[in-house]
Design goal:
Blueprint lengths: L9 H12 L4 E5 L4 H17 L6 H27 L7 H16 L2 H11 L4 E7 L3 E8 L5 H16 L3 H8 L9 H11 L7 E6 L2 E9 L7 H10 L1
Antiparallel strand pairs: 1-2, 2-3, 3-5, 4-5
Helix pairs in contact: 1-2, 2-3, 3-5, 3-8, 6-8
Bound molecules: adenosine-5'-diphosphate and magnesium ion (MG).
Adenosine-5'-diphosphate binds next to helix 3, helix 6, helix 8 and strand 5.
Length: 236
């Protein structure tokens, strides 16, 4: 878990207020995940949701953003870990060994230690908040692309969340899974559903520049998300 006792300077909080006031886009760049960044994001989400009278959605958005940011940071750390140990992603035997080793490292103080390494390797996590009165669009990018097995895992986990109709049952089954055991994305989907958000508005895609997790939060019933507009256009 992140360990950092430093708090963010007051100036940053003031800048965040101004961004919300003028409805500009906020982009946060980070290499690791430290408490102060996490706290800042949580506070920012609360302020944005409050401004648009949807404070009810803040807990769901916080849970989802935290999970997606963690996943993005871990993906970058995993790349560093594999490189440090001369392991190749595309070799099944290397992959098996790498994942076992990586899980051990995750249990330790990975977020500070690997945050430093990620900075050296210029592997970053960029979180952007784009908002207006209709919707909030949050994108979390990490600049490593997904390996084919990761894309497969993402698809499986999202699907598992879509298929799960009973949150209590899901939690009972997965409660004892530690970070890295693969319950986070399914939980994001379930969280969206229980906040009455369309879970298909959470997408994860990858290209040569890296991986993007995107979540769109409509703020009122009258707003059609980009996805459904696109579907309407396709239907003519
Ligand atoms: N940004 C990302 N880049 C690469 N792989 C990812 C990313 N996000 C998720 N994944 C893949 O999806 C898997 C499932 O994620 P998740 O459900 O959060 O489980 P966990 O984080 O516990 O492994 C991850 O283990 C990883 O293989
Ligand atoms: Mg996760």
């Amino acid at each position: 878990m992140p360990t950092d006792t430093k708090t963010l300077p007051e100036a940053i909080h003031r800048a965040a207020e101004q961004i919300i006031e003028s409805e500009r886009k906020l982009v946060i760049k980070a290499y690791g995940v430290i408490h102060s960044t996490e706290d800042f994001m949580r506070g920012f989400i609360r302020k944005v949701m409050d401004r648009f009278n949807r404070i009810d959605l803040a807990p769901a958005v916080e849970i989802i953003v935290k999970e997606l940011v963690m996943n993005a940071a871990k993906a970058n750390f995993k790349k560093i870990f594999f490189a440090e140990n001369n392991l190749r992603h595309d070799d099944p035997e290397h992959y098996e060994r790498g994942m076992v080793g990586f899980r051990d490292v995750i249990d330790e103080n990975i977020f500070v230690d690997y945050g430093r390494k990620a900075r050296e390797a210029q592997l970053l996590v960029e979180t952007s908040f784009d908002f207006d009165k209709d919707r909030v669009i949050i994108e979390i990018r990490n600049n490593t692309r997904m390996a084919p097995y990761e894309e497969k895992r993402v698809r499986e986990k999202l699907q598992r969340g879509l298929e799960c109709t009973d949150m209590a049952e899901f939690l009972l089954e997965h409660m004892d899974e530690t970070e890295g055991a693969g319950a986070g994305l399914a939980l994001c989907i379930i969280t969206m559903r229980s906040a009455e958000l369309d879970p298909r508005l959470l997408t994860i895609s990858t290209d040569d520049d890296g991986t993007i997790a995107r979540v769109e939060i409509p703020l009122h019933a009258g707003y059609p998300p980009v996805r459904s507009r696109w579907q309407e256009a396709m239907a003519g």
